[in-house]
Every structure is written in structure tokens, then in C-alpha cells.
Amino acid sequence: MRISPPKNWRLKEELYNITLGKCQECGSVFYPYQSICSSCGSSRIEKIVSRGHGKLLAYTVSYQAREGYEKAMPMPIGLIELDEGIKILAPLADAENVKEGAEVEAVLRRITADSSNGLIQYGIKFRVIDNAKYDR
Amino acid sequence: MVSIAEVSLVKVDRYYEYSEKDLVIEAYKQLETKVKERVKPDVVIVSSGYIDSIGKSNLSAVKFSNSLGFKGAKAFRVENGDNGGASIYTAYSLIKSGLAKSVLLIGIDKFSDLSSKQVNDFTATNLLYDYEYHLGLTLHSHAAILAKLYMKQYNVPYEYFANWPIKMHEYAVENPNAYLRFKADLKTVISSQLVAEPLRLFDIAARGDGASIVLLTEDSLAKKYTDTPVTLDRIAGASFDYSYELSLPSIRLAMKELDHRIDEKNIVELHDSYSIIAALELEELGLGERGKSLEQLDSFQINYSGGLKARGYIGGATAIYQLSEIVMQLRGDFKGKRAVGEKGIVVSTDDLASSSFIISLTR
């Protein structure tokens, strides 16, 4: 597992924040941010930082590791619908007794570490705020 | 018109003693014994998803072309993740346009040189967004979420998905070139190792090593090599973003472009990377009702090879195996369960079907 500092720095807006793009032409909201709309091709894109708040639509627990992520196993992973209306897949933190429909929020967590030089990879996970059904 | 003059494939297996080049040479030797005249392709195309990452080899098409004695031929690799359909599209286009009279299409991938967790890391590079890769996600986790949504949407239990591996293993028993030639019953499937809940080992394509070669030529040249060419009629394709709507837009768009209704008379090989993806593909192709397709498998001639689940899954070479198998079915020399019909369909996708190619063939 090799962590590249330049690559992580470049990805800071999607790994350490949930930075969305909102198209000023067609209104599409997308993640991660990019400077062109993948729906209509417009370059008029507003950068928005998501509240990192939403609803857990479904979740799984992954038992098969990838190299470098062994310590994260078993890894709970959720499909989250953000308040901004888009769906993303992300790991869940503190995910005991999690329920579909729960209210969740984004938190920054350690993801993995580079065994050769000690660099640490951080990223966004989601944790449950309230297991009761969340309606925006 | 574009013809398929000849095909060959090696049994999918774990070949610890063979390199990628050894497997390609084995497949080529097979092909040479079947053609009437020595092959002299204008172009050599390699279809491989992982020969650079797992095999640590770039310029693979040039290396194979030189090894097989095709010095002077144009040689290149087409990489489209696990979707080898892109290489078939390229080969077809070259001949159809008149730029080449013959193309040797080589499918090759080899998973057994690395551990599962190392391979998982390479297959995860197929995820569409950088953040997903860096957060440690896998293709399996995406498929698991789709399975969960499907179960909820159609109110089906996990056992519903077991229909797929049970049927694929039944077919693979008859195919001497299949990787997993044993029957699997419901108990075996539902008690197999949990990979990403609810997906179990039997819901996931069986990674293996293999090589398959297809010789495509312009119509007039095919008879020089064989008395029984098969025509590649049409190829359609599309790509799309992930969908969590239990539909596969890339297949839907490709079907619209193909403009052919697939039915029980057609012989079909599809890319069943996961049981859930098989279900969604069937439903998008019109080969089963939504939420019921895996209970209607006996109504259609699908994956008599055993599919990725049991014939085996060979990365970017999978589509070349599918193409070879359909050609053999249409000619009547497929060694496994025989299908009946004059039209064959290959459905090639990547593992989450973000990219699809649908190929139509006629005897």
C-alpha cells in the first residue's frame, strides 16, 4: 500500500470535505466537484461544500479486504442520500446496530496507513446520529 | 461484412506454471490447428484488463505479436476494465471500415499470480471515482448494495439470488473448458463464505487464468481459413454512470442502438460478474420480468458455458471467451450444453455494467 502525498493533496476536497458541484445551467448537483457539468456540459459550475448530513438508504458489511485496508475489516459501508439530493457510497463509522433510514453525518476518520513510510490516509466516513427514520 | 474465421480458448484454471505469454501461445497453437492456412493478421489486438497491473507488462500486444511471428503487424492493446467488448468493437470497426482485412483478437488475463486482497485492490481501480478507491471500497460493496436494494424493492429473500449460481454450475459440469465443474445446491450456496453482506462466494464471478483468440476477417477472406465462418452482424455499445435505480442504463442504450429484440431463440452469453448484475442484465435485455428474472432462467438459452460464475471470469479476456463460445454454439461444435438457434448474442460489460457492448452474430 503506497500513499501518494501529492495525490492526497489534490483530492483534499473530496477526501476531507464533500465538495459538490452545482451546474448553473441545468441545476444538476454532483460529487465530486469538477469544473464541467457531466449532465449538460456547461462550465458554469458553483462549488458547494455539503453539510455532510443525510439518510442511510442501505448498508452492507464487507469482509473481503483490499491490500492496505486489512485493519478496516469487516468494513460497514452505506449508501447515503445527502440533504443536497445526491447518493454516495462511503464507509460507516461506529456502525453497531445501524438501521436503514437512519439520520447520518460525515466525520473525518483515519482510513489506512502506508506501511513503508508511516503516512496516514484520512477520509470521510458517516456515523449515525439517530437510528429513527430520517425525513428531511 | 465482418466474419469470424476461427476461435480458440484454453480451459479456465489456475496456471501457476504458465505465464500470460504461455497461455496465449497455447490458445494460438489451438487456433493454428483449425485454420486451413497460416494466419497473417494485419492487426493484433490484445484485450486485457490487468496485464499491466497484475502481469507487470506493458506493450503486451507488441510482445505477443512478435512471439507469434507477426512482425510488421500493427499491434496494440484495448483496455476497458473488464469489458473486453471494447476490443471486439475495435476489431469489428477496423474490418468494417476497410482499414484491415484481418484482425487477430487475443483475450488474456491471469489472476492467480496474486492473492485475493491484492487482486481486489487492482479491480477496485475500476471504481469510477477517486474517493471511492481511496476510502477502501470495492466493486463487491457496490454490488452488495444493489442486491440489498433489489431485495427490498421486489420483496425477495437472499435465496432468490441462489438460482443463478445453481444454474451456472449445472451448465459448467457439461463444459470441459469451465473452471468450476461441479454442481452446487441451495445449501452449498447459502452457507458459502460471506463476502459483502448479502453477497456470498457463490454470488461472485470465479476469477481464473485463461486466453482466448478470435480471428476476424473481411467476408471474402474468411473462406481461406475455414468452411464455416460466422458473421458478426452488429455491435452496439454505451457507457453510463452508476445507477442505484436497479437498472443498467448502458445496456438499455446499447439495446436501443442494436435494434433487435432478444428472445428464447437467441443464444446468449452475458457478463454475470455478480448474481445481482446477472438479474439486472436479464431484466434490461428483456429476458425476464423485473424482480423475477432469476426464477425464469429455463425460458432462455443463457450462459450455457457456465458464465463467469462457473466457466470462470478472466478479466478483459472474458468477452473473447464469450465470443468464442457463441461462435462454437452457432457452428455446432461447442463441447458443453448445446443451444439451438441461428443468432447469438454476446453481452459484454464491466463488472458494474457502467460500460456495455452487445454483439450480434449469425451462422
Task: Provide a short characterization of the protein structure.
Chain A has 136 residues and is mainly beta. Helix content of chain A is 7%, strand content 43%. Chain A has one domain.
3D architecture notes:
- The complex is a heterodimer of chains A (136) and B (363).
- Chain A is mainly beta and 136 residues long.
- Helix content of chain A is 7%, strand content 43%.
- Chain A has one domain.
- Chain A has helices spanning 5-10, 12-15; strands at residues 19-23, 29-30, 45-49, 53-62, 75-82, 87-93, 103-113, 120-130.
- In chain A, the strands form 2 sheets. In chain A, strands 4-5-6-8-7 form a 5-stranded mixed barrel. In chain A, strands 2-1-3 form a 3-stranded antiparallel beta sheet, with no helix packed on it.
- The longest helix of chain A has 6 residues, at 5-10.
- In chain B, the strands form 2 sheets. In chain B, strands 3-2-4-7-1-8-12-11-9-10 form a 10-stranded mixed beta sheet. A two-stranded antiparallel sheet of chain B has the order 5-6.
- Helix content of chain B is 36%, strand content 20%.
- Chain B is an alpha/beta fold.
- Chain A binds chain B through residues 8, 11, 14-15, 32, 38, 57-70, 72, 75, 77, 79, 87, 89-91, 111-112, 121, 123-125, and chain B through 115-118, 120-121, 124, 129-132, 134-138, 140-142, 144-145, 148-149, 152, 193-199, 241, 244.
Number of domains of chain A: 1
What is the largest interface, and how many residues per chain? A-B, 34 and 33 residues
Secondary-structure element series of chain A: HHEEEEEEEE
User: Level of helix content of chain B?
Assistant: 25-40%
Rg of chain A over CA atoms, rounded to whole Å, is 16 Å
Major beta-sheet overview of chain B = 10 strands, mixed
Mind describing the biggest β-sheet of chain A? 5 strands, mixed, barrel
Helix content of chain A: under 10%
- Beta-strand share of residues of chain A: 35-45%
Order of helices and strands of chain B: EHEHEHEHHHHHEEEHEHEHEHHEE
Shape of chain B: globular
Number of strands of chain B: 12
Our Rg estimate of chain B from Cα atoms comes to 19 Å
Distance between the termini of chain B: 13 Å
- In whole angstroms, how far apart are the ends of chain A? 39 Å
Overall pLDDT level of chain B: 97
Query: Kindly state the mean pLDDT of chain A as a whole number?
Result: 93
